[in-house]
């Protein structure tokens, strides 16, 4: 009880059982608990990382074959479907998504 830690968004805590201490660490992935909240957040996130987070969240294979590796996304999605998110990315970043062999492939 005397070793309290208050977390703010973007932080995680690690408990060391041996030393009985809690250490705060920065969690750069804003979507760590998206499975629970339904919220996906991206802030200037490289498109490859966006695809990884979407793959993990929706349990689908989403990859990027983008020629322009500088593509970055900023936005927040609240309980949106994968189709709606991909449509938004398509319009925002001027890219295409193709479905091949049961996976979504981003291309520009």
Net shape: elongated
Termini separation comes to 53 Å
- Would you tell me the overall average pLDDT? 84
* Assembly category: single chain
Explain how this protein is built.
- Helix content is 26%, strand content 38%.
- The strands form 3 sheets. A 3-stranded mixed beta sheet has the order 4-7-6. Strands 1-2 form a two-stranded antiparallel ribbon.
- It has 3 helices and 7 strands; from the N terminus they run E-E-H-E-H-E-E-H-E-E.
- With 108 residues, it is of the alpha+beta class.
- It starts with 10 loop residues before the first strand and ends with a strand.
How would you sum up this structure in a few lines?
The chain has 108 residues and is α+β, with helices and mostly antiparallel strands. Helix content is 26%, strand content 38%. Strands 4-7-6 form a 3-stranded mixed sheet.
Key features of this structure:
three-stranded mixed beta sheet, elongated, alpha+beta
Which helices and strands, and how do they pair?
Elements: E1 11-16, E2 21-26, H1 34-37, E3 39-46, H2 47-58, E4 61-64, E5 72-78, H3 82-93, E6 96-100, E7 103-107
């Amino acid at each position: 009880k005397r070793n309290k830690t208050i977390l703010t968004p973007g932080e995680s805590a690690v408990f060391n059982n041996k030393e009985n201490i809690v250490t705060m660490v920065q969690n750069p992935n804003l979507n760590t608990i998206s499975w629970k909240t339904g919220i996906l957040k991206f802030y200037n996130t490289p498109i490859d990382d966006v695809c990884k987070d979407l793959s993990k969240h929706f349990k689908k294979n989403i990859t990027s074959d983008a020629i322009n590796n500088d593509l970055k996304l900023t936005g927040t999605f609240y309980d949106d479907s994968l189709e709606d998110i991909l449509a938004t990315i398509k319009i925002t970043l001027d890219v295409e998504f193709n479905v091949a062999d049961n996976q979504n492939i981003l291309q520009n």
